[in-house]
Structures are given as structure tokens and as C-alpha cells.
Design goal:
This protein is α/β, with parallel strands linked by helices and about 325 residues long. The protein has one domain: TIM Barrel, CATH 3.20.20. It contains 14 helices and 8 strands.
């Protein structure tokens, strides 16, 4: 039997880009018995997380294919104080064509129409991004609810969600009030996230937990479960502004909460690590975690996103190395 060619292997792993989102998570009534019963053995979780980068690797054409799949799961993000419409327009052009044409041709994947999973911006730049992505099928995600601290007046946060949806955002990344978690006020957290979910309307909602500020992995587990019970379509690690952002032990805990929630309700909730993911190797670690903890279904943009800005540059460099055998300078792969 003839061995598959490199292009055939790439197509097998990447496949045609599917719809960006699955069905909504309807949520469920808050079950405090379930939430309070959750406990996390930190040592066991850290041991499990430590095996991911050391025991699992992908090489050669399989690595190239996984990196291409990673691009399709990327929320290409700019959340800086100096963001301008021009920067966002250039970022959206990169989102439409994330790889240089010569690399696409060399890899033989031009027909796959590889794009990123979404473009994530501040509310003020949603109309710019929506216009720049018109006709591409790439959704615009808006950070909302007083990002990154989430401490604006509650009514103001609800209005911000509604305004972003009205401006054309198809996904809303909300931030929770961390104090509800730190004080164990689960009814307040549930009510807050449910209100944001209702304000999102048809837009899919990602709940940012700010895990680096939640003190314990048990708090991460409980906050994840409450956010899903309240109807979050995705749970997300971080804003990218905390001292500690996306780390693998937190990913293990959140993935296992997603699995437990699906077993209880039948609803599949997505996962988004964000903050500090800059290297292709890190992205592959997260992909491996998803595959091992949740299965292949979570290796598509409908259920997995990577919040990233500079990550795409390193992925392009790795793919150029696969094609040419040489690493190129980062300036050959500009983001904007």
C-alpha cells in the first residue's frame, strides 16, 4: 500500500475549516452540592501536567499539520492601549491569510483556505474588525464587562455586552468578578454569568476566569463549573493581564471540569487558554492536553481556541523550517 504523501497527511489532520461554533450551552440550575464537593489534588494535577511536554511529541509532517490546525483554532488578538483602526485592519488581513503565500504553496494546502478562528479586539474597534472581515466567515470577538478587572458597575458591564453584540461581535469574552470566587459566593457568580449570557443573545460567550488570581486550583474547578452551569459556551483561563496566565495545571483542571459537565448535561463546552502562549511548542502542548483529556472533538475551533498575538509568528517560522530546513528571522513574518 502506497504511503501517504506529506500533503495528504497535512490535509488529513487539518481538514476543511468547520463552522466556528457548535450549539449553545443552555446551562442548568446552580447545584451547590456539586460545586462544594469539588476538590483538587494539586500535586497530582501538577504531575499530570508535567507529563504533557515530556512524554508526547509530534514530528516532521505531523508537527506541520498540527501547527496548521493550531492556526485554525487561534483567536488572533490585539488588546493594547495603542490599538488603532489601522492596526486592526492589518490584523484582520493577517487573519484572512495567516501564512505567507509561498509557504501555503510549498505545503500544498492552498485549497484548505486556512484562516484563524476569530479576531479579538476591544469594543471600540469591533465595527472596524467587522468591516475588515466582511465575507470571510471569521467571527469578531469582543472583550467586555470591564475587561480586564471586571469591576465596572454591573449595569455598565451589561450595556457593554449588548453594545458589542449590536456592533456585530459574534463572540463576547466576559470577565467574572474574582471576589465572588475568593469569598465562595457561588450564587452571586452564577447570577452574574447568567445575566451576561442573557445579554449576549445569539453571540457565543466565553467566560474569563482570571485563574492566576483565584488562589487555588479548587477555586478554579468550582468557578469553571459555576460558569458552565450559568451557560458559558467557553471557559477561558485568563485576560492575559494577570501575573500568571495560561499554565498547564490549570488547563488540566478546567478540561476535567468540562468533561464532568458534559457527562452531567450532555452539553459540550469549549476551552480557551490565553496569555503567555508565544511559542509553537507551547501551543502543541495545549493541543496534546485537549486530545488526551477531552478527545479529538476538542481540536477544532468550535470547542478550542488559543488566545494569542505573537504566537502566529513562531508558528510561521516553524513551518518555514519544515519547508526549507532553515529558521527565518521573525521580521519575515510580520503580524501587521
Amino acid at each position: 500500500m502506497k504511503a501517504p504523501t506529506t500533503s495528504e497527511r497535512l490535509r488529513h489532520v487539518v481538514a476543511v475549516r468547520p463552522a466556528s461554533t457548535e450549539g449553545r450551552n443552555p446551562g442548568m440550575p446552580l447545584d451547590l452540592d456539586v460545586v462544594r464537593a469539588l476538590r483538587v489534588n494539586r500535586s497530582a494535577v501538577e504531575r499530570r501536567a508535567a507529563t504533557i511536554p515530556t512524554r508526547r511529541t509530534v514530528k516532521k509532517e505531523w508537527q506541520a499539520a498540527w501547527l496548521l490546525r493550531t492556526i485554525t483554532c487561534m483567536d488572533l488578538t490585539t488588546l493594547q492601549g495603542d490599538d488603532t483602526p489601522g492596526n486592526v485592519i492589518r490584523l484582520c488581513a493577517k487573519a484572512r491569510r495567516p501564512l505567507r503565500p509561498d509557504l501555503v504553496a510549498a505545503l500544498g494546502v492552498g485549497h484548505l483556505d486556512i484562516t484563524v478562528g476569530a479576531v479579538c479586539v476591544y469594543h471600540a474597534l469591533v465595527p472596524t474588525a467587522v468591516a475588515a472581515l466582511d465575507g470571510s466567515g471569521i467571527p469578531v470577538a469582543a472583550v467586555s464587562t470591564g475587561f480586564p478587572a471586571g469591576l465596572n458597575p454591573f449595569a455598565q458591564r451589561l450595556e457593554e455586552v449588548q453594545a458589542s453584540v449590536a456592533a456585530g461581535a459574534q463572540e463576547i469574552d466576559i470577565v467574572i468578578t474574582r471576589a465572588h470566587v475568593l469569598t465562595g459566593d457561588w450564587p452571586a457568580l452564577y447570577a452574574e454569568v447568567r445575566a451576561f449570557r442573557d445579554a449576549c443573545g445569539r453571540a457565543h460567550m466565553k467566560a474569563i476566569l482570571g485563574t492566576g488570581e483565584l488562589a487555588t486550583l479548587t477555586n478554579v474547578a468550582r468557578a469553571s463549573m459555576v460558569a458552565m452551569m450559568a451557560g458559558a459556551d467557553f471557559i477561558k483561563t485568563s485576560t492575559g493581564k494577570e501575573p500568571v496566565n495560561a499554565v498547564l495545571p490549570v488547563g488540566v483542571v478546567m478540561a476535567r471540569m468540562i468533561r464532568e459537565y458534559e457527562m452531567r448535561t450532555g452539553a459540550a463546552v469549549g476551552f480557551k487558554p490565553a496569555g503567555g502562549i508565544r511559542a509553537a511548542k507551547q501551543a502543541l502542548d495545549w493541543m496534546i492536553l485537549m486530545k488526551e483529556e477531552l478527545g479529538d472533538r476538542w481540536l477544532r475551533p468550535a470547542l478550542f481556541r488559543l488566545g494569542a498575538s505573537s504566537l502566529l509568528t513562531d508558528i510561521e517560522r516553524q513551518l518555514e523550517h519544515f519547508v526549507t530546513g532553515r529558521y527565518s528571522a521573525a521580521h519575515r513574518h510580520p503580524m501587521v
